[in-house]
Design goal:
The chain has 7 helices and 10 strands. It has about 230 residues and is an alpha/beta fold. α3 packs parallel to α5. The two termini are about 35 Å apart. Bound molecules: S-adenosyl-L-homocysteine.
């Protein structure tokens, strides 16, 4: 998968994309090619303004600055032309569809994502109308920019690209995932067996895998009932 990021602050990304699973996914292993490549583009590089500006005060008045159409439009055209793979355009915005694991699962199968991070008060609506991106939100709160939401999206998607996680860390039992029936994950324990007087649940120690499986399913249902009854449906 190719992932293009269009942002005014590309310097925010390398630490996140260069660490742990996101880093590993972008590295070739033996003679297998990398499973993903990241391409950061600074929208500012495409402005035709002679002072390098990309934003202006809003028509109609009000606080803040609005990102202009021209730099973003030209950046998208230029970046899309860098590779024949068709890009799915995504705009991170608090007004988008709330991001869900089911959306992430679909995105993980695509050949190319082009993710736009807004900043300041937002983006001139006309360029959004023209680009017709899929609009996604990371939750009902407002951040100062789309960069963190973009990184959240990339992290959630890349770990689901087939081959990125090994079998032993596979995703099938995680919260919201089909393997967990869309429920929350069960609780996890590791060594030592006793910590601050608290014992690991004995069922996990007896090696009876059917029993363990049953216990985990029950835990998963119980926590979902407690914490997120909305996930259980009607
Ligand atoms: N004025 C806008 C908010 C702008 S926030 C409004 O009230 O709807 C500035 C930028 O941060 C947005 O363009 C978007 O790219 C990003 N952003 C802020 N909160 C976000 C969220 N919850 N999800 C996704 N992107 C968000």
């Amino acid at each position: 998968m190719r992932i293009d990021v269009l942002t005014l602050f590309p310097e925010m990304f390398p630490a996140v994309l260069g660490t742990s699973i996101l880093k590993r996914a972008a590295q070739p292993v033996g003679d297998r090619a990398a499973l993903v490549s990241y391409h950061l583009t600074n929208i500012r590089d495409y402005t035709t303004d002679k002072h390098g500006k990309v934003d202006k005060a809003p028509f109609g008045g009000g606080p803040g600055m609005v990102m202009q159409c021209q730099p973003l439009w030209d950046a998208v055209q230029a970046v899309e032309a860098q590779d024949p793979a068709p890009a799915t355009r995504i705009l991170m915005t608090p007004q988008g569809r709330p991001l869900r694991q089911s959306i992430v699962e679909e995105l993980a199968l695509l050949p190319r994502l082009l993710v736009i991070s807004g900043h300041y008060e937002g983006i001139d609506e006309r360029v959004i109308d023209r680009l017709k991106p899929m609009e996604l939100s990371v939750g009902d709160y407002v951040l100062s920019g789309g960069e963190l939401p973009t990184m959240v999206l990339i992290d959630a998607v890349v770990r689901l690209i087939p081959g990125v996680l090994g079998d032993d860390e596979s995703t099938h039992h995680e919260s919201f995932s089909p393997g967990a029936g869309g429920l929350l994950d069960y609780p996890h324990y590791t060594k030592p067996r006793e910590w601050m007087g608290m014992e690991v649940p004995p069922v996990l120690l007896n090696g009876d895998h059917a029993k363990i499986e049953e216990w985990r399913k029950e835990q998963s249902r119980e926590r979902t009932r407690d914490r997120r009854p909305d996930l259980l449906g009607p």
